[in-house]
Amino acid sequence: MPVITINGPIGCGSVTVGQMVSQELNLNFVDRLIFTQAARLMGAPVKVLIEKEQRVVRFKDRLSRFIQTVLERSAVAGVSGDPYFGPGIESLPAETLAELVGESPLSPSKVDDKAFLEATTKVVNDLHRGGNVVIIGRGANVILADTPGVMHVGLVAPLELRVETMMQREHLDLDEAEIYVRELDEAWNIYFRKFFNTSPTEASRYHIVLNMEKIQASTAAEVIVHACGDLAS
Predict the structure, then answer these.
(1) Which of 162, 170, 171, 169 is nearest to 211 (CA)?
(2) Is residue 1 part of a domain?
(3) How far apart, in whole angstroms, are the C-alpha atoms of residue 179 and residue 171?
(4) What is the pTM of this model?
(5) 62 domain residue, yes or no
(6) Which tens digit of pLDDT belongs to each residue from 184-217?
(7) Could you report the per-residue pLDDT of 11-41, keeping only the tens digit for each?
(8) Which of 180, 175, 211, 230 is nearest to 8 (CA)?
(9) Which domain range does residue 125 map to?
(10) Number of structural domains, the chain?
(11) Domain annotation covers residue 233
């Protein structure tokens, strides 16, 4: 019952690699749907939890429009596995989708930090107990640190490559994409420091760290699949 966590900064391919691994090993794949469950436990809108993690300020409006576009595209196409949300977004209840794109009187700053961490931790631990899952981000590598049967994978890539990826993926110009990536990088680091008292790039937190500038996503997936054999030894 392998459990794999994959963490990396925006634009390094965590979702793509995670989906490949989950398909190869026939595992469930979980990305932002962790926040769906955590939001239910807290009684808070999903959008607020996402904003609390990302702390997007200048790009908040753009992000909101982007989320709405993703949801509309997924609904029209009837497909799962959107690269932003991961498989399963089309199965979310209507009220959850409305929360993602709508306005909420509850701001991220008003969401209790302790409750936020407890809810996220419970969801991740529940996923671990269920087994057979690839978990993207959400600090799952720290929550499940040293847990038997769990492999933690870190992905890295230079800023330039990640900016180029976001230009293509979100149709941003160079300046917009660089600001977007830098802001989310800052939010990622703050998230880990605030809730886990560590850095997301701390190598000791991972079994393996893969440089996505040097290898293709398919190669990274193959390495992870092969390394999973060590979980049983």
Answers:
(1) 162
(2) no
(3) 14
(4) 0.70
(5) yes
(6) 888 888 888 888 999 999 999 999 999 999 999 9
(7) 999 989 998 998 999 888 877 655 555 556 5
(8) 211
(9) 6-10+12-226
(10) 1
(11) no
